[in-house]
Design a protein that fits this description.
Number of strands: 0
Order of helices and strands: HHH
Largest sheet: none
Radius of gyration: 10 Å
Structural class: mainly alpha
Helix content: over 70%
């Protein structure tokens, strides 16, 4: 997933379930080439996965 894909995850965060958004962040992290970006995306995914679901 490119930066555009990561941007889509950010935009979707407010509109879809956090589980789907977390999956998008995880997919982006797997494709990230920079360690800092991969770490950031992984943390975002983990934060969303730890939220209580309604």
């Amino acid at each position: 997933m490119s930066r555009a894909g990561r941007s889509a995850a950010v935009l979707e965060a407010g509109r879809i379930a956090s589980g789907v958004t977390a999956r998008l962040y995880t997919e982006a992290a797997l494709r990230a080439t920079a360690l800092a970006e991969r770490d950031h995306l992984t943390r975002r995914a983990a934060r969303l996965d730890s939220r209580p679901r309604a």
